[in-house]
Amino acid sequence: AGVDSDVNWVDKARHDSAMDHFRFTFADIGPTKEWGNPTKETLQKIHFNYQIAPLIVENDAFDIYLVDGRWRIACACVSMLHAMNHGGDMSKVMVGIHDSDRTMYWEHFGK
Predict the structure, then answer these.
(1) By Cβ atoms counted within 10 A, which residue in 60, 67, 71, 77 is the most buried?
(2) Angstrom distance (rounded) from CA 19 to CA 106
(3) What is the pTM assigned to this prediction?
(4) What are the backbone dihedrals phi and psi of residue 68, each rounded to the nearest 5 degrees, phi first?
């Protein structure tokens, strides 16, 4: 499962992917600027929709969740909740966070 805030990228990924089992989800967070950042932070449901959109239709836990893009801390938390709610073996489930070596994430994930 994957999510992106750029409808053109999602369409391209859906078209170009050779993986029939992979779902690409478009999360409408309104107009975006560089790197998919929203230009309007005032729409309250936008963040929530982005965080849960790719997992809401998944009935089984994944062994590995990869988080990259917007709201990484919240998405990592949602990934763990999804695994717990769908029978994941929490001693084996892993969540990888892209760029987790950035100091801004250390207080949440450790070094």
Answers:
(1) 67
(2) 34
(3) 0.76
(4) -150, 150
